[in-house]
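Backbone shapes recur. Consider a single case.
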Amino acid sequence: MLKIGITGGIGTGKTIVSCMFAVLGVPVYDADSRAKWVMHHNLELRQELLDAFGSETFSEAGELNRTYLAGMVFNNPQRLEQLNSLVHPHVGKDFETWSASHAAKPYVIKEAALMFESESWRQMDEVVAVYAPLELRLKRLLKRDAHRTEADIKAIIARQLSEEEKMRRAQHVIYNNDRQLIIPQVLALHEQFSKANA
């Protein structure tokens, strides 16, 4: 079974691409949502987070205090790196367990914004980068995330690996630029990945 990574910066449309693969019957692991699940349910990680970030990390009801945690790491690269160094290994193990449950499939997909930053690309056989130009990403995100300003979005983008670097490191690129159709690009890769493990 092939393990295919899908990555791309905020607003590139990697989730739309992943949904298209899911419609084709490919199991898709959403690293962001699974990370939240793991932070809630993995007792070892919960304790590591409490030790690192204090008792306010979880509410009295045991819910992850995402607002508090985001405030701790947003403009603090060292704290963000600390958080990622705790969370990513547990998500990696969770992905391996999940992948094993889909062993009969020709391939599975892991969607992750920080695939290269977190080193999780090392678990993948191949990586697909989803690309969109900056001005189009800003337009999409300002429409989608009404609570964010252009400055907020640019700050997030500035902390992510550049799109050019992602494209250089990936084995495949899907262009989501409103000029090239996405579906034919997805279908071509689906055929390629399915045959590779036939």
